[in-house]
Fold this sequence. Notes:
The structure is a single chain. The relative contact order is 0.08. The chain is elongated, with a radius of gyration of 18 Å. It has one domain. It is mostly helical. The chain has five helices and no strands. It holds the Pfam family UPF0175. It comes from marine sediment metagenome. InterPro entries: UPF0175. This is Ribbon-helix-helix protein CopG domain-containing protein.
Amino acid sequence: MGDVRSESISARLPESVVGEIEAIAGAEKTDRSITMRKLLEMGIQEWKKKDALASYRGGKVTLWKAAEMAGVSLREMMDLIKEAKVPYQYDTDALEEYVERILKGL
Length: 106
């Protein structure tokens, strides 16, 4: 929600989904519009994590790049990888990159 600009979009949803949105809005004490934005943002974040995990699992990206793709810290990405039971993939270039980034942060 950091982007100040916005655009209105419309989508047809099954009544059951609309009912779920209304139930969540009631529980959150917000209106449907706010609830839909929050749920959409949560869904996008989850998709980014899944995509980053799949890319890392497939050897397409480094751990650091996967964290960037997912929009999480390196530590959080490591936790996601552990939870998903994805084996860590180390190569010397990636290890050097991690060490350099860690040292820059000190």
